[in-house]
Amino acid sequence: MARILDTDTNRFHPLRAHHTFGRSTDKVDTSVTSPTASRIHAAFQWSGQGWQVRDLSRNGTWVAGVRLTASQDVDIVAGDEVFFGSPDGDSWQFVDDSPPRSLLLANTPDTSTVELKPYTFLPNEGHPEIALTYSQNRHCWLSHRVEDADPEQSERVLKHGELLFCNGQQWKIFLAECENATELYPLAENQLDDFEFVFDLSLDEENTILRLERQQQTLDMGERTHHYLLLHLARIRAMAAQHGLDQNTEGWIANDQLSKDLGMDMAHINILIFRARKQFAESSDVSLESEHLVERGKGRLRFGCPRFKIYKGQQLAYQMPIAAAVYA
Questions:
Q1: Is pLDDT at 232 greater than 90 in this prediction?
Q2: Statement: the pTM of the whole predicted model exceeds 0.90
Q3: CB contact at 8 A, 258 and 269
Q4: Nearest alpha carbon to residue 119 among 136, 106, 105, 107
Q5: 288: which of 135, 149, 192, 280 is 20 to 30 A away, CA to CA?
Q6: Given pLDDT bands bounded at 50, 70 and 90, which one contains residue 243?
Q7: Do both 143 and 49 map to the same domain?
Q8: Together in a domain, 242 and 316
Q9: The domain containing residue 293 runs over which residues?
């Protein structure tokens, strides 16, 4: 993550994609105490390829020993020394010129700073209470409490500078994104509808292997606990289609019924859904849009992908769209 060091306080400051410096603490991202600095003195900007700095002041900004021309963007790289207002004042060291990253900054003892990724679990992935996701459609970070029956109905938009609490720990939210920034989280390269889901279910239904197929391409998603949840929802959708329900209404199941079917509470089911979305979003083979892997309605949900096959043992049991097949 991009950082700059205030050598006077020996404090590191992470940088937003558009990050301002100056004496006006309520109008800039990082305050500068030098009396020669302007209220809004300079701005750092991530271009998508590298960092640039622009002088907005009266007294000047120096980078690597050179005074910047006012209101012109100048490239800056790790190791460059920066002075705001006077080359004889306190220096700032640009120590990391990697892309900006959103963070949860530790705000209590025994709490670690967390880099926000499109699917982040708190306090940890093994026992999550909160799932943090990035919505590519809405361009914002969302917080979901997994114990809620429908976490997406009670979701909360994260805001820069707010505090976040979980399991006795506290973080300050640092969001690198801003309206003028180059998009830091580009849209996924592929849609789920581009692929056919192929489930291989053991006869005792203890093991579920999933692969995705598209023309000559096959993605092995392996065996995961959450694959059985996806299979169960897909099977419900196929059975509804057999009974003639249209595509908009087929496959929906009430939360209570799904909980009874799987023998687990909704908190556990929600965790499996978030883990499934995380696996698809972070697939090393192909970037997949996973937000609609499982669709939610009021008190119900369904498998969101209309093309799939389910094999039980070696026999094709279900297929969507419906084809000439023997259903079991």
A1: yes
A2: no
A3: yes
A4: 136
A5: 149
A6: confident
A7: no
A8: yes
A9: 192-320
Establish how many alpha carbons lie within 13 A of residue 320's alpha carbon, considering only the half-sphere containing its beta carbon: 30
| Residue 275 contacts residue 166 (beta carbons within 8 Å) | no
39 neighbors 32 (Cβ within 8 angstroms)? no
Secondary structure element (H or E) that encloses residue 255, with its range: helix 255-262
* pLDDT tens digit sequence for 204-216: 999 999 999 988 8
Helix (H, G, I), strand (E, B) or coil at 271: helix
- Measure the CA–CA gap between 293 and 302, rounded to whole angstroms: 9
Number of Cβ within 10 Å of residue 104's Cβ equals 24
pLDDT-derived band at 257, boundaries 50, 70, 90: very high
Closest to 77 in 3D by CA, of 8, 4, 131, 10: 4
Residue 327, pLDDT > 50, answer no
Query: Is residue 197 located within the same domain as residue 312?
Result: yes
Query: What's the chain's average pLDDT?
Result: 90
Same domain for 153 and 91: no
Structural domain tally of the chain?
A: 3
Contact (CB, 8 A) for 259 and 265 = yes
How far is Cα 317 from Cα 328, in angstroms, rounded to an integer?
5
| DSSP characters over 184-220 | SSPPPSB-GGGSEEEEEE-TTS--EEEEEEETTEEEE
Q: For position 292, what pLDDT does the model report?
A: 86
